[in-house]
Amino acid sequence: MCAAVDPVGGDDLRAAGDLSVETAVEHFGRYGEGAVATRRADTLLVASRTDFVGAFHNTALRVSPDTAPGRVVDEARAFGGAHDRPIVLWVATHRDQDLAKEAQASGFELRSTAPGMALRTPPPEPAVPADVELIRVADRADSEAFAAVHREVFVNAGRPAEAVDHFASPDALLAPNVTAVLARVNGTPASCAMLIHNGPTAGIYWVATTPATRNRGLGTLVTTAVARLAFEHGAQTVTLQATELGAPVYHRIGFTPFTTYHRFLLPRPRLSSPQRRDATEETDALQ
Question: Which GO terms describe its molecular function (predicted)?
């Protein structure tokens, strides 16, 4: 769990961060294999085909801060029950304090905390090692290589490999609002990151590096590459939600914290599937 951060920036930066989260939740709900996504009472709700408890797999997000917190909690509970899924509720500290109190009073448990971080100027172009090839994901074969990196990371961490299909399917990676990059070491997929565009804002998600190729700066390489592509495509702000592992790397690239996101878990009544995992899973595996 990441420590609390001292945020910088103003309301416009926090609004950009919230838009990135909303866009990502909706994107994975739309393109994830077997996923279901809906909006109820200004709440965005997603159920994936597995009961993996991840930040973007089985999710509830209050889209409007004016929506009553009790209504959000009720909608999340009903949606999770209807789809037989645990639900992870996103709470932004700059706007959702009432929702945090309501969630805790209603049986949700705080499971993970992530600083929202932002970049407003392009980082320097990274140096690419001689044995590394850096490419943009352009077709199904590239998307399968991207997914292979994450499956290796998931399996190494004891997580279900099939949960990768929610965010790394060909449809999710080749969507028109997505830019994804892949680094190969001597021809073998080794590291990757994806970028979801939304007008002047872009969000970086699912940065990963295989265990065998860590400690070479590949996570920094792919993150810097997609950030530069975001600005080349007109983004004014690039955001991400950092894990404890990733935050120092992002800080070195130039990202600064602007808020903190909490994720609260509402378990389903009976969790019989072996696919159940904690919401503290990493959405990046850098090193």
Answer: acyltransferase activity, transferring groups other than amino-acyl groups
Which two three-digit tokens encode residue 15?
């609004």
Per-residue pLDDT at 197: 97
**Interval 275-287 mean pLDDT:** 39
Reduce the secondary structure of the chain to three states and give it as a string.
CCCCCCCCCCHHHHHHHHHHHHHHHHHHHHHCCCCEEEEECCEEEEECCCCCCCCCCCEEEECCCCCCHHHHHHHHHHHHHHHCCCEEEEEECCCCHHHHHHHHHCCCEEEEEEEEEEECCCCCCCCCCCCEEEEECCCHHHHHHHHHHHHHHHHHCCCCHHHHHHCCCHHHHCCCCEEEEEEEECCEEEEEEEEEEECCEEEEEEEEECHHHCCCCHHHHHHHHHHHHHHHCCCCEEEEECCCCCHHHHHHHCCEEEEEEEEEEECCCCCCCCCCCCCCCCCEECC
Do residues 260 and 113 lie in contact, with contact meaning Cβ atoms separated by under 8 Å? yes
Say how far apart CA 281 and CA 84 lie, in whole Å: 20
The boundaries of every CATH 3.40.630.30 domain in the chain are 132-258
Judge: domain 132-258, CATH 3.40.630.30: yes
Give pLDDT tens digits for 42-100.
899 999 999 999 999 999 999 999 999 999 999 999 999 999 999 999 999 999 999 99
Tokens of 32: 């994830």
Residues 186-240 have pLDDT tens digits of 999 999 999 999 999 999 999 999 999 999 999 999 999 999 999 999 999 999 9
Architecture of domain 11-115+259-285: 3-Layer(aba) Sandwich (3.40)
Name 38's bridge partners.
45
Mean per-residue pLDDT over the chain, rounded: 90
53, 277 Cβ separation under 8 angstroms: yes
